[in-house]
Amino acid sequence: MTDIPDLTGRVAVVTGANSGLGYVTARELARRGARVVLACRSEPRGSAAGERIVAEVPGAEVEFGRLDLADLASVREFAAGFRYDRLHLLVDNAGVMATPYSTTADGFETQFGVNHLGHFALTGLLLPALLATPGARVVTVSSVLHVLANIDLADLNSERHYRRWIAYARSKTANLLFTHELARRLAATGAEVIAAAAHPGYAATNLQTAAPRAEGRRAVERLMAAGNRVLAQPAEAGALPTLYAATAPDVRPDSFTGPSFAQWRGTPAPSWRAPWTRDDRVAVRLWVASEWLTGVAYDALKR
What is the CA radius of gyration of the chain? Predict the structure, then answer.
């Protein structure tokens, strides 16, 4: 794994830590001494992931916290139950990809609701603990597929026309716009918190096969599984950019870290991003809309 500094005494929250990139990220942070909260929707899977981490890393300090990003009530419950005064690292990792059209418990299109709004709300609710921790970081996991589409401010919930891959790309663009605006607001208030983003390139996880499996599209599921075997790098490698963004000393605010070879695989390196992900005007409008939709206001960052 990447050269991770000693994290003893630090607290980290990793969403979607029960499998794939999130699991590897949580395990490696724990290996270096961090106390890691595994923020997962399923208690059995989250608790089992914690047991696996302890088995792989004896003495690891991990705990389960129930978090369903598709339900803002669950996000608020998780934040209200967060028992630490300080939070050194928040990894907004969990996500869904190319799902059939559906809505969250609050009526948002699922990919936009889970991938962006759920994490926007979580970060805002945990902001006091982050601001109380000099050197804290928020790392949001986006995707190279954000290049497929900019967000549509007039149709954030894809109510007019839904195309699953475009909706996914828009949610990943939203991740980068969120990071861009969060970094700007943190800097404007002098907060010692870094907001950065990362992506895994093409990594073999259950993200690719979950949607076709749920729909019973066996041919597509087999095709995705074959791609994972032949083309993708393992989750161990896919988590490296996230770990780098979370721990490396040279990470800058609003940076985007990904694999070095064609944004596909390899060691962590600065990654190209679509110019629309640094659009200040759109970032502000998305931020305002996100506060209104979630009911979570970042009052500490307002001047």
Answer: 18
pLDDT in tens, 179-217: 999 999 999 999 999 999 999 977 545 544 444 444 454
Pairing of strands 61-66, 35-40: parallel
Query: Per-residue pLDDT tens for 29-41?
Result: 999 999 999 999 9
pTM to 2 decimal places: 0.91
Q: Which amino acid is at 7?
A: L
Cβ atoms of 150 and 167 within 8 Å: the answer is no
Q: Which of 23, 101, 168, 202 is catalytic?
A: 168
The predicted-structure confidence for 105-154, as pLDDT tens digits, reads as follows 999 999 999 999 999 999 999 999 999 999 999 999 999 999 999 999 99
Report DSSP letters for the chain, one per residue. ---PPP-TT-EEEEETTTSHHHHHHHHHHHHTT-EEEEEES-HHHHHHHHHHHHHHSTT-EEEEEE--TT-HHHHHHHHHT---S--SEEEE-----SPPS-B-TTS-BHHIIIIIIIHHHHHHHTHHHHHTSTTEEEEEE--GGGGG----TT-TT--S---HHHHHHHHHHHHHHHHHHHHHHHHHHT--EEEEEE--SSEESTHHHHHHHHHT-HHHHHHHHHHHHHTPEEHHHHTHHHHHHHH-TTPPTT-EEEEEETTTEEEEEE----GGGG-HHHHHHHHHHHHHHH----GGG--
Longest Cα–Cα distance of the chain, Å, equals: 53
Sequence-ordered list of residues with C-beta below 8 angstroms from that of 59, at least 6 positions apart, any chain? none
- Residue 244 annotated to the active site: no
